[in-house]
Amino acid sequence: MKTPATLACSTVIASALMFAASGCSTVKLDATGDTAAVYQLNEFRMVMNSTAPATFAATQKALREMDLFETKSKLNTFDGELYARSRKDDKVYVSIAEMNSRQTMLKIRWGTTGDQKNSTALYKLIERHLR
Fold this sequence. Notes:
There is one protein chain. By secondary structure, the protein is an alpha+beta fold. It has a single domain (24-130), classed as 2-Layer Sandwich (TATA-Binding Protein), CATH 3.30.310.80. The protein contains three helices and seven strands; from the N terminus they run H-E-E-E-H-E-E-E-E-H. It has helices at residues 4-20, 52-65, 116-130; strands at residues 25-28, 36-40, 43-48, 69-75, 79-85, 91-98, 104-110. The protein has a seven-stranded antiparallel β-sheet with strand order 1-2-3-7-6-5-4, with helices on one face. Strand 1 and strand 2 (36-40) form a beta hairpin. The longest helix is centred in the N-terminal third of the chain and has 17 residues, at 4-20.
């Protein structure tokens, strides 16, 4: 017979296994490894040293440069989101949210199952357009 303590322990173990299998990794963005992003749950995440409106504009330029078709976009004062499609009909979703007055969280999800290579390439274009 399973007791409540046994069930709770089983739940904790199952949750830990799911988290371990989620595939969290660090993406090195420069040769020295000083700059890195997080790729977790098929989503690329990076803190940008910019405001949400500036990051939003840079993202729009980067989407065009990568030959992605922007299907929907919404910019608010402190956040925004963009939706696009690739030539292979992959959905691309970008979320932008200010963390403070000088930093913004950028999240990129390329396709349903994620694509680290394309997400990283999009990030690098966004970063270049912010300079």
